[in-house]
Amino acid sequence: MGKPIARLVLTSGGNTYTYSFTKPNVLLRISHTEQPYSHTANVLIDDYNNVLSALSLKGYQGVISYGYKTSAGDDYTGGATAPIIVKAQEVMSVRRQRSAISACQLVLYGLPDQLAQDEAQYPYRVDDTDTKTIKTLITDICDLSLTDGTHTPYAHCTAVTVTFEPVSAAYPLGYDDDIIDDYYPADYFSISVGASRLAKIKELLGMTKCVMRFGDDGGLHIFNPTVSGSTYDYEYDDIDKSKHTFFSKVYRTRLVLPNKITVKSSDAHETQYAGSYTSAASYALLPKESFVVRRLTSYAQAIAIATAMIQKLEQDHEKGNGYAPLNCGQEVYDYIKITDSLKSDERIGNIGWLTREFEPGRFDFKFGFGSILLGSTIGLQGLPSLGGESSVTWSEFGKQIANIYNDMDRVYGYSQSNRDLIKSLTSTFELMQDSVPKWRVTEQMIIPSTP
To answer: Rounded CA gap, 394 and 396, in Å?
Structure first.
């Protein structure tokens, strides 16, 4: 197949800069993670000639592509990922005993992260007679036309192209799940001042089986993912050479919680409807129910929404990770299968996150099932105890985090820049002591109380 390669193309106005493995300014490191609601990358580029130091790259649009070096040349076919924006540029000079390294690090983030920063400037409220479907509401949020007749919450933001995928070979189920184009949330959907576009799109999709994915065209794609059957986007197999091989996998089972959802009408509604759906295996072990109130027009509608919500929970609670040679075309929510001869088992599910990492001499491709927020075995190995029931100062916590990086440094031979990161982490936490200057939560944060 050839040697894995990567490149970063930056554009702004009429300016274009390309960085790959070709001199003079070669890529030194890429850490690139894609999740359903976040898309981030850190890219380190050699700047021995100080060319990048003289450039201001903040705000440039970047496209990271992956491919293989073949006998016919560099092949990036199908390897372009969704565009991301440079939000920070760091110029660094690292001196060693007998040498010095000049480098430039770019911190980039994608469209979902940008949507999370688009806040409503006005509220949005409608009454129980509103007939906008979920599809219409999402479209209007994306193209900035959403209005309740008085206020247009997101008119100050940048329009985003949204595609509701029709049935095709790439999207066997298309987008129509009998909810997204048929259900009217009416007065049970509203927007408050400061609510982000990403949060409201997620809220709407949360009532459907559909998911969002950001494409290499720079737009938002909505589709109903394949979650069962024997037709896969990719297959990984450690023996069958006709399939993509893998180096390791971890399979973890987890209870789906809650595992029964009942969607019902409010007691104040003229006609009440109710419908439930259960994740049977988890419910049999530990029944936990959740109740959701919506404006409904039928029992079938209640059951359809409850079914969609359970499907989302089952996807998020799928667990396991894979580590394999570079797969250029792998995307979030792809339906895949891993066949493991060592364990004589199979793992089937939807990609919840994927990370591609490059440093000279290694190119890692990691992926996981379900929500990355629910944790994973690989991600949690080797974490130190934070002191049991006793409290831990930020200084001590920082030292323990640094110990993890030091252990990785000894095992994997990380670069000098990572060693500098260790020192920076330690000193930062020491300065923080027992106070936190600012938290930025992008998904959910739960802070346990003390008695």
So the answer is: 5
Cα(390)–Cα(287) distance, rounded to whole angstroms? Answer: 33
Task: Return all residues near 236 (Cβ < 8 A) that are at least 6 apart.
Answer: 243, 244, 245, 246, 249, 322, 324, 336, 337, 338, 339
In sequence order, the 6+-apart residues with CB closer than 8 A to the CB of 358 are: 4, 6, 27, 29, 30, 364
pLDDT tens figures, 352-375 = 899 999 887 778 888 888 776 554
Express each pLDDT in 388-440 by its tens digit.
333 445 555 555 555 554 544 444 344 444 555 555 555 544 444 445 444 54
| Cα separation, 303 vs 298, whole angstroms | 9
Give me the phi and psi of 409, to 5 degrees please. Answer: -60, -45
